[in-house]
Amino acid sequence: MKEKDKKLEKANAESLEARAERQKLEEERKGFELEKARIIDAERKGIEEEAFARAVKQSGADAKKLQKKLDDTEKEKEVEKKLLEEQVAEKNAKLKEAQKRELSLLNKERELDEK
Questions:
Q1: How many whole angstroms from its chain centre is CA 62?
Q2: Rounded distance, CA 30 to CA 93, Å?
Q3: Dihedral angle computed from the Cα positions of residues 65, 66, 68 and 74, in that order, rounded to the nearest 10 degrees
Q4: Environment class of residue 44 by beta-carbon count within 10 Å: exposed (0-12), middle (13-18) or buried (19+)?
Q5: pLDDT tens digits, residue range 15-73?
Q6: What is the pTM of this model?
Q7: How is 10-63 classified by DSSP, letter by letter?
Q8: Rounded Cα distance, 32 and 36, in Å
C-alpha cells in the first residue's frame, strides 16, 4: 500500500506540477497576446499619424497650387482688362475724331448753304 500511496503522491505532485506549468504557459501566452496587441496598436497609430501628416502636406500643396492658379487667373484677367481699357480708349479717341470731322463737315455744309 505504501508503494501505491507513493505512486499516487508522485502522480498528484506531477499533476500539480503540470497544472502549474500549464498555468504559467497560459499567463505567458496572455502576456504575449497583450504585448502583440500593444505593438499592433502602436504600429497602427504610427501609420495613422504618418498618413495624416502626408494628407496635411498634400492638402497644403494642393492649396498652394490652387492659390497659384487663382493668382495666375487674376493676372490674366488684369491683363485682359487693360487690353479692353486700351481698346475702349482707342475707340473713344476714334469716335471723338469722327465727331470732330462730322462737326467740321456740318459747318462747311452750312457755310456752303449760306452762300
A1: 7
A2: 93
A3: 160
A4: exposed
A5: 999 999 999 999 999 999 999 999 999 999 999 999 999 999 999 999 999 999 999 99
A6: 0.49
A7: HHHHHHHHHHHHHHHHHHHHHHHHHHHHHHHHHHHHHHHHHHHHHHHHHHHHHH
A8: 6
pLDDT band at 115 (very low <50, low <70, confident <90, very high): low
CA dist., res. 24 & res. 16, Å (int): 12
What SS3 state is found at 115? coil
Would you say residue 114 has pLDDT above 90? no
Residues belonging to the chain: 115
Looking at residue 6, its amino acid is K
Grid coordinates representing 64 are 498652394
Residue type, 31: G
The C-alpha cell at 74 is 487674376
Task: Look at residue 104 and give its three-state secondary structure.
Answer: helix
